[in-house]
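Re: the 660-residue chain
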Amino acid sequence: MSESRRERREAERGSKRRRISLGRPEAAEQEPARQEPAGQTVAGQGPETPVPAVRASDPAAPVAEEKAVGAPGAGNAVDQAPAGNDDAAKREPGKVESGNGGSEKDEPAKALPSKPKARNAGRAAKAAAGGRPKKEHTAGRKAMGVAGSVAVLCLGAAAIAAGSLFPPEVPAQGATTELTTLPAGDSLATCPASVRLLKGAGNGTDPEFAPASHEAKSMVGAAALSDSAGRIPGAQLLETDGSDGQQLAPRLDEAEAATLTGAAQDGSSGRKGVVLGGVSHDEPLSLHTQPLGGVQSLGAAARYYTATDGDLAGLAAAPCAAPGSESWIAGASTTGGTTSILHLVNSSASVSQVHIDLRGAEGMIPAPNLESVAIAPGESKSLVLAAYAPNEKSLSLKVVSSGGRVNATIQQSTLRGLVPGGVDYLVAGTPAANSQVIPGVFLLDPKQAGELAGSAEDAVAELHVAATSAEGATVKVRVLGASGEVAVPGGGELVVASNATARLPLTGLPSGAYTVVVEGDSAVSAAVKMVRGTKAGEPMDQAWVPGAARIGSEHLVVLPEFGNAKLVLNAPADSATVTVRPLGKDGSLGAEKKIELSGSKTVTLSPGDLGSNVAALVLSAGGAPSYAATVIEEGPVGIAVVPLGDAPVGREGVQVQLRH
């Protein structure tokens, strides 16, 4: 290269450095020197580095050319052209213009190493044309991005905190809300298993059973009542797992059953019923009754057992009751010759965990194995009580279940040597309370009762009371007969120790039907044991009746197909009126009969007085609290009592309380 040419080139480079220094003070320090065209050497970069040319025919050439034009820091006139220079728009592809605007030499365009650098080229060109320097522009964008992010975070935090800054409106504490009503479901009443003979020693859980005798009869009777429009609800007797059973009435369509109706179309009441009797089934059964108009229908069932021979000779009866979460049973015995078996039935769809408290004459009886007894859905479990509390003359049970509700019943039988001493079911009474009313107590003539008691110590009619708290209880006993209150021999006062049981003999009273009222200074559970027989040393029977619930708006009492049944009524505190209507075997309802109760007098009514072929009774009451029980006698010995069942449940009200 000639000396003049070298000097001119150095002068051009000096001019470029001056322009860079004036337009971008930091550019010379920030941007490295770019590669020069082939055959040229960039100052300070060592040996010459050839740059491949991009052919115009190459498909990538236009793109490479477009990006190369604005490459930052390149030694061409585009990067250094001042603002408003239009010469750059007149460039031809493949040519690189000299820094002074003159065309020095056609040289190939330089290829860019990567896309990001090409993108920055346009920014550099704008900076060279008088825009902000690159570093300031980048810093500004970063500052704006950070400020925007902070603003978004602040807005989000404000939205989250809005709930605490501006709390939503809520009703005042204790504000009254409307009552939400839930339609009633099927009513469920579970019947205990038939009386059965215990095999072997009978210790522990789930003993083996055998038929009572070849002459024994065990039947379940059931009935259901229609609504005022004459619609009979669907009703079925099923096993506890929902399998095999018998139908009383077909189930109505759910939409039709949910419709609330009044009287019949002609304005009269078209009520009628359906009766099913003589269902012979030894295992527990449950009566399912369909609700009508969102209210539970009236249905009832009972288990009846009778045998004239064998170790379990006697009469036994028990109502089919709704499962419960808490049951109180008083009066069991585990002395020699008496067998008491607790039957637990879970007819629900949930597993039940059952806890059983035992109370004896000395107080609470520890039984760790009874603290948690699991019963699967649709299953039953039997417990021999003598294995947990032996030699107790009076044993009281509190059965509490969590999860599925259960039915608790005790099958109790007595055998004195080879002579049957009676059999019966002990069923749950009313919950523990300061007052207990026990209707349906039948007592023998004092002379005859004395003879039976002389032959066997336990053949005595007596009241069993259990104190349900550590305070114990002192109770006053009133006995109400056909003429009103009768004086109790000995004064009728009984002291019960803490969480213990005690007995009061009911000897010396005239024969007849009675109602026993127990009034304590703390909550108690109570039941009465009755004995019936003819001669000492001969077979006799026993029956138990617990505390009863008061008569409500409507109850259905199913009568047995054997024996002689009587309805016993009493209103201990004041006057009351009980209305009784017979339900025939054909399902027809007979004329009602009103019975006035007053003066604490116990009234006995025979169903035969209401008509023939009576299969059930419909009861309702008004006035003071009144109570009822059905007493059944068969032959010279047999006796059993069926307490009055609960009234059906209507719509259930649920109060929803909103709180914050």
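Helices lie at 3-23, 27-30, 61-69, 77-80, 115-128, 134-165, 254-258, 446-455.
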